Amino acid sequence: MENVVHKDSCREAHHDIMDYLKEFLKSYPDKPKFSISWMSVLTHNFQNSLSRADDYFYNFFNDTKKDFDNSFLFVIGDHGLRFGKSRQTKLGEIEDNNPALFLSVPKSLRNNPTFMQQLRINSKELITHFDIYATLTEIAQPKNPRISKPVLHGSSLFHPLPTPRTCDSLRIPFEFCNCRSKKIALPKNNQIGIKAAKLMIEQMNLNLTTSADTSNLCSKLSLKEDGEIIVEDYGGEQIERIYKITFSTIPGNGKFWGIISFNPLNKNIQIISSKFLRLNSYGKQAKCAKKSDYASYCFCITQ
């Protein structure tokens, strides 16, 4: 669609979004307003393509400088690059779970040393989107009595944050936690890895067959026998071990990873991950199920 809409023009998708935002900023000058402008085309498939928009965004923020003097501006991502060679590096894994977050506050607050110092302290803490929501709620509250008692699962970034700041206390699922202990690579294609990979693929097939938007549309997956299975041990002194398993499936040559627990006493394997994340792109392989939560698993029967 992007290629069709902008085929014969010198414009890109982000131009339309940002033009609309600029118009919105200039409208209703005396009224409080809120906007979410979300775009993904620039960097979704190619991490280095953002630089081509540097001049555009510089000019945009330069032109709207006065409009943001009395505004809170959040520049935020939902996740890092999810597939490709860089994602398969250690840094890529961290970036996937650690999206960008930049915050600009109104000019009147920038000269408040106590406020700014607290923001700087909190910028080095572990936070979640629940905290972003709590912060937005605090910004809106003075002007909106309808949300006098919001239900919050996080804390505003404008104040000291409750401790401890751990993945457990903040309800961050294990597979998305960057505060994990260092992994130890085990011999590739060992029996734990093979058994765990097959269990995960069973779960993937169950998800595909029981979901209304993928049932009867996607091929049954199986383990790519000549593919590499990577097993990484999170260590620790407990009897039960936590492993990260990376494996490949056919058809489609999908590369996935998930987290399991393994009890060496009874050899029991339990899947921890609620979903298995894909490390390579699937593109048109899943065109029959592109709106499904399990699109990344799907290799359409009709290609």
Describe this structure in words.
- It holds the Pfam family DUF229.
- This protein is α+β, with helices and mostly antiparallel strands and 303 residues long.
- It has two domains: 2-176, no CATH class; 184-289.
- It contains eight helices and nine strands.
- Strands 3, 4, 5, 6, 7, 8 and 9 form a seven-stranded antiparallel beta sheet that branches.
- Strand 7 and strand 8 (268-271) form a beta hairpin.
- The longest helix has 20 residues, at 191-210.
Radius of gyration: 23 Å
- What percent of the residues sit in helical stretches (DSSP H or I)? 25-40%
Helix segment tally: 8
Provide the domain count. 2
Quick check: average pLDDT?
Answer: 86
Distance between the ends: 20 Å
- SSE topology string: HHHEHEHHHEHEEEEEE
Binned strand content: 5-15%
Q: State the total count of DSSP E strands.
A: 9
> Globular, elongated, flat, extended or rod-shaped: what is the shape?
globular
Which parts are unreliable, with pLDDT below 50 for 5 consecutive residues or more? none
Q: Which sheet architecture does the biggest sheet show?
A: 7 strands, antiparallel
Main structural class: alpha+beta
Protein name: Sulfatase N-terminal domain-containing protein
Pfam families: DUF229
Organism: Panagrolaimus davidi
InterPro entries: Alkaline_phosphatase_core_sf (IPR017850), DUF229 (IPR004245)
